[in-house]
Design a protein that fits this description.
2 domains, eight-stranded mixed beta sheet, single chain, seven-stranded mixed beta sheet, about 325 residues, mainly beta, Immunoglobulin-like, 5 helices
């Protein structure tokens, strides 16, 4: 795979202190069809930015009969760990990515399937019996846990469903935090008419992980997790030189990290298993930001946008995007 990196150098002033504040990105992808050999994916137009992800598909039924198929959009799993904060765009909602879908231009109303697991065991019925909402980061769930009978709370602690809240007042009545994992999937049944195209579009807000400083470069050196970053985001010599230049004043580049993960490899349940025409557009948003990702024959098509196209495309790799955003207002323009 060819590697593509767009870099820029910022004019920098005094260095901020390094911080450990970070949020983890949740990998999210596209639609999955129930296995069939009749429906082909004619095209996929994928747009990714820190603000939104949009995907436009054209499916074609190659047969003389209508085909009914289940179409699903798996949401990323969320684990209730008070020590690890994932980046959740709308953390008080079951639709925490703001997922929307249209079919031939008409808004669809997909069903939401949700289950909750602890130690790999489905404990959805336990939460329902105590009127505890499934979203582990919603305020409603924590409020419901405060009302649990002591016998139930003790049982749930022993079963790994909840833990005593490490941020709670341990001298008072114990408070509890979710420890379960939420698994959510939107799905609907779609009809693909014989010998016709069906246009399906969906959009959502991506989970953008972040770190308040550059986690792999400090004291004038690449260190820490740089080796894994280099592989995951296809960082090259040009990128390294740009980071060194940005840190020239005192060894600390004035950036913070944003990270986006898109799962491209979970599909393929359509005729031929390839995408007839694939187009990927990545928009870094801020013209002063640095962006790096892996891709073949990527072209810059705008001040902040980069495009990759392919025919008969087979998704072998997921898409991981690293954005270094300037942490002061004195950054220069992108190259």
């Amino acid at each position: 795979m060819l590697r593509y990196v767009l870099t820029m150098v910022l004019a920098l002033s005094a260095a901020p202190a390094l911080a450990n504040d970070s949020t983890a990105e949740l990998g999210t992808g596209g639609l999955i069809l129930s296995r069939n050999d009749a429906v082909a994916m004619q095209s996929e137009d994928l747009f990714i930015s820190p603000e939104k992800v949009t995907v436009d598909y054209v499916f074609h039924n190659n047969t003389d009969k209508d085909v009914s198929a289940i179409v699903a959009f798996p949401m990323p799993d969320i684990s209730g760990d008070p020590e690890e904060m994932p980046a959740i765009p709308e953390n008080q909602s079951d639709n925490f990515l703001g997922f929307e879908v249209t079919i031939d231009g008409v808004a669809a109303k997909p069903q939401l399937e949700q289950k909750v697991f602890a130690l790999g065991i489905d404990i959805s019925a336990d939460l329902k019996a105590q009127n505890v909402p499934f979203n582990p980061f919603g305020d409603a769930a924590k409020a419901a846990l405060a009302k649990l009978p002591k016998a139930v709370a003790d049982d749930w602690v022993n079963r790994g469903i909840i833990i005593e809240d490490p941020e709670g007042d341990q001298s008072a009545t114990p408070s509890y935090a979710p420890w379960w994992q939420l698994r959510s999937t939107y799905w609907w049944r779609s009809i693909f008419p014989a010998n016709k195209d069906v246009h399906v579009s969906h959009r959502y807000k991506p989970s953008v992980g972040g770190t308040s400083s550059v986690s792999f470069f400090y004291d004038g050196k690449f260190q820490g997790q740089y080796a894994s970053y280099k592989t995951r985001y296809c960082l090259d010599d040009t990128f390294e030189n740009a980071v060194r230049q940005a840190a020239k004043a005192d060894g600390y580049p004035k950036f913070y990290e944003n990270r986006i993960a898109y799962i491209l490899t979970t599909g393929g349940n359509w005729a031929a298993g390839t995408i007839g025409k694939f187009k990927l557009t990545i928009d870094k948003g801020n013209p002063k930001a640095m962006v790096s990702f892996c891709g073949d024959n990527v072209k810059k098509v705008g001040p902040t946008t980069f495009e990759m196209t392919a025919n008969d495309f087979y998704p072998e790799h997921d898409i991981d995007i690293l954005l270094l955003e300037p942490s002061d207002s004195n950054g220069g323009d992108a190259n």
